[in-house]
Recover the amino acids of this structure.
């Protein structure tokens, strides 16, 4: 169904939820893509996919059995048209345990950097929960929903400081060790071979002394209280490491070669082209990096210059497909 030979242009169909479409498909992206021979065509998910097109590639972020069947039917009739990405591969990222298992299985070696994931465990039932020590974790810990499907509920996370806070949770959930990381994280966006890293503020570090005064749990939406309360306590004019604002400008980025190789390994292991992963630098070891989250088809429009990055990715997919067809 390729149309390149007919009009020397590529047609990429996109199937996105309205909010996602408004974020990604901005006039600046449409212009950049068009200048490079790509027309971005919206797909109507209500109409049969096989009746739409023609397309040289499909990108999507829709879920559900009906949409999966539509993609399978389209692919069977158009085997040379790439679909970015496979629903089966995307499904792996909907579970907070399976999404990080791929990281622990990577066989990558670096001269200086080390990588891994925080210690974590699934709590399926509260009655099976004995003590934090039995889980081989120490407070504080982070409680995250097991399911990561982009819903509001899947983003409800808590920082837990003691046993009383842990007993307030509702299973199932994932407990993940909290690692001091300087109050910032790196968000690494992957679009095929294109890798872009940006810095973002994160949870503040928690000293052992500070932990003694923290009780119960805090929802992530109220984590800022840690900083605000700390500043109120230290109102004598002295700076406090737990309450200082993070100066992102002074934060050193991980090496691009490290991030690109890590992204390549994850891309191949996951079988995905469009995703991002959150990385934090262990405050105890500046060469140790921990991957804490992986998301499918993130908000690329938040990246500076995302239009060029996405257009480059589209062309990579299209040219690879064209070579495959020729061969």
């Amino acid at each position: 169904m390729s149309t390149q030979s007919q009009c020397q242009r590529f047609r990429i169909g996109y199937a996105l939820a309205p909010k996602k479409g408004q974020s990604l498909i901005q006039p600046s992206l449409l212009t950049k893509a068009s200048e490079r021979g790509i027309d971005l065509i919206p797909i109507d998910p209500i109409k049969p996919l096989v009746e739409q097109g023609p397309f040289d590639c499909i990108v999507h972020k829709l879920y559900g059995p009906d949409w999966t069947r539509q993609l399978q039917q389209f692919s069977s009739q158009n085997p040379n048209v790439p679909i970015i990405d496979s629903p089966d591969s995307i499904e792996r990222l909907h579970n907070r345990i399976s999404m990080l298992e791929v990281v622990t299985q990577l066989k990558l070696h670096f001269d200086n950097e080390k990588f891994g994931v925080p210690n974590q465990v699934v709590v399926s039932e509260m009655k099976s929960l004995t003590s934090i020590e039995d889980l081989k974790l120490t407070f504080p810990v982070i409680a995250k929903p097991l399911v990561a499907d982009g819903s509001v509920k899947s983003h409800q996370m808590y920082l837990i400081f003691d046993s009383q806070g842990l007993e307030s949770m509702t299973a199932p959930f994932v407990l993940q060790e909290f690692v001091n990381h300087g109050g910032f994280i790196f968000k690494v966006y992957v679009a095929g071979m294109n890798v872009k890293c940006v810095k973002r503020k994160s949870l503040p570090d928690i000293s052992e002394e500070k932990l003694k005064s923290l009780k119960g749990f805090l929802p992530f939406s109220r984590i800022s209280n840690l900083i605000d309360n700390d500043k109120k306590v230290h109102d004598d004019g002295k700076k406090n490491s737990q309450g200082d604002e993070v100066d992102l400008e002074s934060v050193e980025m991980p090496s691009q070669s490290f991030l690109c190789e890590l992204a390549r390994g994850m891309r191949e292991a996951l079988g995905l082209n469009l995703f991002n992963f959150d990385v934090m630098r262990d405050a105890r070891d500046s060469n140790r990096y921990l991957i804490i989250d992986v998301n499918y088809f993130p908000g690329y429009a938040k990246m500076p210059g995302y239009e060029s990055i996405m257009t480059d990715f589209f062309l990579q997919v299209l040219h690879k497909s064209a070579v495959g067809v020729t061969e």
